[in-house]
Specification:
With 140 residues, the protein is α+β, with helices and mostly antiparallel strands. Helices cover 29% and strands 18% of the residues. It has three helices and five strands, in the order H-E-E-E-H-E-E-H. Strands 1-2-3-5-4 form a five-stranded antiparallel β-sheet, covered by helices on one side. The longest helix has 22 residues. The radius of gyration is 17 Å and the shape is globular. The relative contact order is 0.16. It binds zinc ion. The site of zinc ion has 6 residues, from helix 1.
Length: 140
């Protein structure tokens, strides 16, 4: 736990939150600045700034919880779907450096776009070059 981390303090119960799930490795609660009614944040109990810092078992537990909660969030709000996303790293707009998965209920004509709409599509490299670079960085 990081004493200065607001999500660690929510996990520890030191800061109140509208908790919707409390599991051995994961806690889920409502975002206090919701993008829509039912906007849930799912966080690992163990502090990690980025998903690359998490252990495989922690990732498994996190995404099991996201998968388990997506349906109930949709049902509870009468939503047509959910947008699920992670801002992974400060440069992406991640404001709390503790991994959190957003589950945001969506409705037709809710005025929000898809994940594709947040990118201006400024690419300059070929798919082959990028694929080769990622495979090399993965050690394959
Ligand atoms: Zn934390």
């Amino acid at each position: 736990m990081s004493a200065s981390c607001i999500f660690c303090r929510i996990v520890a119960g030191e800061i109140p939150a509208e908790v919707v799930a409390r599991e051995p490795e994961v806690v889920a609660f409502l975002d206090v600045q919701p993008l829509a009614d039912g906007h849930v944040l799912v966080v690992p109990r163990a502090h990690a700034a980025c998903i690359e810092d998490m252990k495989p078992a922690e990732i498994d537990a996190l995404f099991r919880a996201v998968t388990r909660l997506a349906g109930p969030v949709r049902k509870a709000l009468g939503a047509a779907g959910t947008t699920i996303g992670i801002n992974n790293g400060e440069a992406t707009g991640q404001t709390i450096p503790h991994v959190h998965v957003h589950i945001v209920p969506r409705w037709p004509d809710d005025g929000a776009g898809s994940i594709h709409t947040i990118f201006p599509r400024r690419t300059s490299k070929s798919l082959a070059d990028v694929g080769k670079a990622i495979r090399a960085a993965s050690g394959d």
